[in-house]
Amino acid sequence: MALTIIEGCVNCWACVPVCPSEAIYEAQPHFLIDARKCTECEGDHALPQCASICPIEGVILNAVGEAINPPGSLTGIPPERMAEVMAELQSH
Ligand code: SF4
Ligand code: SF4
Known about the structure:
Strand content: 5-15%
Bound molecules: iron/sulfur cluster
CATH topology: Alpha-Beta Plaits
Number of strands: 4
Order of helices and strands: EEEHEH
Number of helices: 2
Number of domains: 1
CATH class: Alpha Beta
Helix content: 10-25%
Strand order of the largest sheet: 1-4
Distance between the termini: 45 Å
């Protein structure tokens, strides 16, 4: 079982040093997780360390493809409100 980094990752490097398995590597267009190395942090930490430190919502998925930090989970802004604000901004 392994986590996945997807589009939206801003290549900030924050997750690289906290991974106990050295599973995260620099790639294009964004960082990736080596599925053969990722242990989901089991045995080392209670929570996946990459997802715990990642500042961007929605870019790290669990083994079944769900965002560990879904929209709104880090900013506290409900996704519906964010959509309204973005629509407002784009209308100007
Ligand atoms: S879940 Fe843990 S082992 Fe897997 S990439 Fe993230 S920090 Fe590394
Ligand atoms: S912490 Fe998140 S945004 Fe930063 S490199 Fe890792 S996955 Fe990408």
